[in-house]
Amino acid sequence: MIQKIIRHIFVLILFSGSQSSLFSQQLSSLSQEAREEVEEYEEMVDYYMERDQPEDAASSLNKIAFIYWESGNPDEAVDYFLEAIPLNEELNKLDNIQNIYSNIGLIYTDLEELEKALEYFQKSLEVRRELGDQKMIAAGLLDVAYIMGLTGDYREANKRLEEALEITSDEGYSNMMVNIYRELSQNYNKIGNVAKYEEYRDKYNSYQEHVRTQSMKDDYEQREEENLAEIRRTRAEKRAQELESQLQQVRATERQDSIQEVVQEKQDSLLQARRLDSLKELRIERQERQMQLQEETLERQKAQQRVQRLIIFSVAGGLILGIFLIIVMYRSNKAKQRANKELAEKNEEIQKKSQQLQEAFYKIEDQNIKITQSISY
What we know:
Layout: H1 2-24, H2 32-50, H3 54-70, H4 74-91, H5 94-110, H6 114-131, H7 134-151, H8 154-171, H9 174-191, H10 194-253, H11 258-376
């Protein structure tokens, strides 16, 4: 029994040690440069919140979220995006809110958490409907339909795509219509509706060719604009040469002011040097502060490790003391059992002797009675 208790206690000690090692191995996956940027933006958030500047605070939170997103930390990015939403709601910045919801939807799409992705794309669509921008609404419907298609809900996805198609047909968004026709053809093909699949496939091919032709036209117009820009640049250079010639003439007539200009330049150089010195001092101060923060971080980690070791030793000491008490109680119980057994044996022996004495007394009394009767007789 005691051996089982001891084994159980040592298992608990080993488990506590493994937990503390896990805590000590929790390190940030951000690079040093990214960590420094995050710390700077967090300080800016506190600064703007103290001065009641929620718009600037929300902007800093978005920048932190993008740093985490680009560094491969999507969960932290989502947390900072969500933290920025109440600030934008306070300012009624609906455009920022729909962008944040779309970013969160993209993050969960990359993580293949499609239910959450659909939730945030739908929230983004609701905000876009409030804004009333038809192109943004169509794009939001396309996002929602795409996620629904991934989850296998093709009929609901097609409803969103048909609504987006009505908007884009009226507005004439050729690029978006190509994507809508592609999604509709794929969804109807998966449903098994061959007629609709072929209809939208043909429309997709037709609009894709139209978009390609339009792209070639745009490229041609862009080249024409670049040629015109080159002509304008040549003329500008020629005009600049003329102005330079005129400037040389003006300088020739203003030689007397040259000394004053030199003095002013020197003063400007001194001022610039002072500014550079100030910037250098600020950089040094910032480096010292970063080193101090790193030292404080190391001290906190060491303190946490000391506390964890103290907890482990305390638990181990308590468990060992408990083992000792159990052993003492066990031995005391055994000794008490032995004493009770010996006392019971002595009591039994005393009872036997008492019974023997009682029987002897009865015999003597019987003999006395017989003797007395004999004498009387």
